[in-house]
């Protein structure tokens, strides 16, 4: 097959953006050039890859089957170009890992230490955790360290595999009362916690994180007074530490707290799972497999 990388990039952009015009704008081409690329690519593969649906285009079954493989080729080409530009030593296996806040703090450095004597080189890329699965599917990263919530689960994506690395419960967190004010070991102050009138610091309700947090509070029959809506976990924990309100956090999330906060015993609710997301066609690549195993060792449930 005599396709070109330009044709493959164009097809990937059309598939992602849904129109020839949008793809042209993203790639710096004219719509006519995009149309020519698609015509040439379809002639090369011998089947239709796109079908018009009103003002947009949709992938045919052949297009759906081809897209993840094209994205894998483009990701490999990008990594090769990066390796050449950076003078990559022979034999190195660069693996691009998408991370979010608490995962980057807790897992990246220990995983890199585990891989020090191997040929694998982890390259972290910050990715919005709500977009992690899409970034893996699109080939922008090799491994995505993401979050799955049983109460608001990730929708399955064709060709994307998920491995659970750690499962943890949320707890109510509040401003630190100091060691002298904490209850004796083995006791709980959950019953005395005033939740009805307290101000709450919560993520937006239209995100998977926000829905999971609200489901968790509903488990404890808590109807929170949603005073502060905050996306960033580190900001939430800073506000909790300052006494602005109550929040929910898991043990891993507490690594982002700029100041100590109290995780209230006896208030466990809801769950989240830290997961590794990979494309199925990369399963056999030793660098990807070694990276996922390293994160499993670091984050694995006790």
From TrEMBL:
User: Residue limits of the HTH lysR-type domain?
Assistant: 3-60
Stored Gene3D superfamilies? Periplasmic binding protein-like II, Winged helix-like DNA-binding domain superfamily/Winged helix DNA-binding domain
Recall the GO molecular function terms of this protein's record: DNA binding; DNA-binding transcription factor activity
Per UniProt, which keywords does this protein have? DNA-binding, Transcription, Transcription regulation
Q: Name one GO cellular component term.
A: protein-DNA complex
Q: In terms of domain of life, where is this protein from?
A: Bacteria
- Answer whether the UniProt record assigns the keyword Oxidoreductase to this protein: no
- Similarity-based family: Belongs to the LysR transcriptional regulatory family.
Q: What is this protein called?
A: DNA-binding transcriptional regulator, LysR family
Q: Which organism is it from?
A: Brevibacterium jeotgali
